[in-house]
Design brief:
The protein is of the alpha/beta class. Helices cover about 25% and strands about 25% of the residues. The strands form three sheets. Strands 3, 4, 5, 8, 9, 16 and 17 form a seven-stranded mixed beta sheet that branches. It has a six-stranded parallel beta sheet with strand order 12-11-10-13-14-15, with helices on both faces. Strands 1-2-6-7 form a four-stranded antiparallel beta sheet, with no helix packed on it. The radius of gyration is 21 Å and the shape is globular.
Length: about 375
């Protein structure tokens, strides 16, 4: 292992995607030392998120190392980094927090102007990669690329956490579970006794349900086309399950009928713009609030009649549940260690790194919530 003072190139295994939808290939990659304000992390656990699969299936940048929901241990630090030192336990985050830009200092936003969503597959600082194979660059994903034994991230895209928290569990707070809880608490601010409708019961949707339950929602209606989700969802707080395939009546009409005019809050957790409109129509007049969390795979434009808004409904977007990563994630980790929030129930599969393609198959087939992938020690 390299020294924190004189880090050198590390050669390690990484699951490389060479083309859209092609099986990942376990390759030997070179991982450069961290540059100024960067850290190099030994990945301990990483979980597969739906957005990894969506990007992998699209015509994105290749070759690429996916993965962004991860935990690990700092191996070395770059020049100027004072927040981290070798041996620190960290969570990676796909949006950073520079603590200085207008958004970071506003107290109103988590869309950092410096370390916001990275879409070009390179590092924020110099627009270059830290991965290569025989001198050929291998591109990053979401500023993290955790499907590698070692990765390099900007220090603003990592969060120091307690060494007592189990890294193989809390990696889920890097994205999915935190995103759902934040949508319920920060973005919607669900009130006690309210009625909630959730469209899509994957990890994010069920995390919304958990957040709604903890806020004291009286009814939590879960909507999914997978009939197996109905029973599982009860453990997370869902009180009623609707499968759109079980009725010819439009979904929004069913929800408005059984809630006496519409839900107080609805959440679109699928990434379907048509369903975003349905979620909006399922809310009540006057104060109905729809939060959209899903990322559409196609048809990104949505349509909605102006009458839905003039009668008082609101549509809000949510990125990472409104959490400011460095400021807020440590408190979520603490909540988990105190058993105030649930994470373990979302982990349906554990597998070694070499079986990562099986995790992709499970996600594609809708047979898992979260597969946690364990790196070699």
């Amino acid at each position: 292992m390299s020294s924190a003072k004189h880090p050198h190139v590390i050669t390690c295994k990484a699951a490389v995607a060479w083309g859209a939808g092609e099986s990942l290939v376990m390759e030997q990659v070179e991982v450069s030392p961290p540059q100024p304000m960067e850290i190099r992390i030994k990945v301990v656990s990483t979980s597969l998120c739906r957005s990894d699969v969506t990007a992998w299936q699209s015509h994105a940048i290749f070759p690429r190392i996916f993965g962004h929901e991860a935990s690990g241990i700092v191996e070395s630090v770059g020049e100027g980094v004072t927040e981290f030192e070798e041996g620190d336990h960290v969570l990676t985050v796909f949006i950073g927090e520079c603590m200085k830009c207008r958004h970071c200092t506003s107290g109103k936003s988590n869309i950092c102007e410096v370390l916001g969503l990275e879409r070009r597959g390179v590092m924020h600082s110099d627009q270059k990669t830290r991965f290569s194979i025989n001198g050929k660059p291998i591109y990053h994903y979401c500023a993290v690329s955790s499907f590698s034994e070692y990765t390099v991230v900007h220090s603003g895209c990592a969060v120091k956490v307690s060494s007592l928290a189990p890294l193989e569990k809390i990696c889920l707070l890097s994205c999915g579970v935190a995103a759902g809880l934040g949508a319920a608490w920060n973005v919607a601010d669900i009130s006690k006794g309210s009625t909630v409708a959730i469209f899509g019961l994957g990890t994010v949707g069920l995390s919304v349900a958990q957040g709604a339950k903890l806020r004291g929602a009286s009814r939590i209606i879960g909507v999914d086309t997978n009939p197996e989700k109905g029973e599982k969802a009860k453990a997370f707080g869902v009180t009623e399950f609707l499968n759109p395939n079980d009725s010819d009546e439009p979904l929004q009409q069913i929800i408005k009928r059984i809630t006496d005019g519409g839900a107080d809050y609805s959440f679109e957790c699928i990434g379907d713009t048509g369903m975003m409109t349905t979620a909006l129509q399922s809310c009540c007049d006057g104060w109905g609030l729809t939060v959209t969390l899903g990322v559409p795979k196609e048809k990104p434009e949505m349509k909605a009649h102006y009458g839905l808004f003039i009668t008082g409904r609101t549509l809000k977007g949510s990125l990472f549940g409104g959490w400011r990563p460095k400021s807020d994630l440590p408190s979520l980790v603490d909540m988990y260690t105190k058993k105030e929030i649930e994470i373990d129930e979302f982990i349906t599969h554990n597998m070694p790194f070499e079986d990562i393609n099986k995790a992709f198959d499970l996600m594609k087939e809708g047979r898992c919530l979260r597969c946690v992938i364990h790196m070699p020690k």
